[in-house]
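Reposting from the mailing list since nobody answered there.

I have sequence plus structure tokens for a pair of proteins and want to know whether others read the tokens the same way I do. The first protein:
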Amino acid sequence: MMPDSVELQIPFTSLIDAITSLGLEDKLKLLELLEAQIADAEDDLLEQDPTVLAEVEEARRAYRTGEYQTIQDYIAIGLNKPHEL
């Protein structure tokens, strides 16, 4: 049975050289891949952040108890306020 993956140890400078030699289309593909992986990693970090977790729990509590304002209400209130210049 073949292994599912192989881990390679590539020196960072060799990786930079390889990226530099890519054409524009391949660099754009690589950029998309990196941006997606970075976004996933940032999401994972946010999900573990105590401040974010506390804010999410507070929002859930407010929703359960009805202590929130709908976007429609927010817009209606904003439209009825006098505008300052």
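The second protein, same order (residues first, tokens after):
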Amino acid sequence: MENKIKTFIAILLLLSITFTVFGQTSATKGEAPNDNKATLEAQTATKKKPVDETRGYIVSVGDKAPDYEMTLDNGTVLKSSDNLGKVVMLQFTASWCGVCRKEMPLIEAEIWEQLKDNPNFVLVGVDRDEPLDKVLKFKEQTKVTYPLALDPGSAIFGLFARKKSGVTRNVIIDQNGEIVFLTRLFERGEFDEMKDVIFDLLEEKKVPASSKK
């Protein structure tokens, strides 16, 4: 009888040890996914490109472009959703901006004239907080033929940059709605790099500016 009791106690001790070890192992396995998730989130955070605050932007290359809706100088309403699957160039400008007046004829000659017949390319000059009559006069003065859009209160501008920062900036958005290039002011090298990005996305061949008549 005494032997049976000892055997029974031994079995109970063995079962107790087994359940304890099993429970610790299960807990350890249960923590692994959380640890892996935390590691993945940390890695993703380090890969995010910083916002180019030095140039007034609140977006950066790699971001999805903000949704927008604008009225063009001919009265057409254009939404960002209309442009999915296309390469979009938003040129932020204003009639009082001297650098804009320098850049716009180059955009006309070196980008718009070469790509205006491509249905997969959209170019809009977004005029910052000016009335239609002033925008139309500005368009006539700069001799550009690509569409300009009204931006009352700089609402569209404010989706991409701090409202206290200046114009003369271009935002290039790819076919997936992702920002792929940003410019500020006018610098010939950066302008040419922007052109390369646009033409490469469209798989178009550039005509050198010097060869145009």
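Reply #1 (J.P.):
I read it the same way you do. The chain has two domains: 1-47, 53-211.
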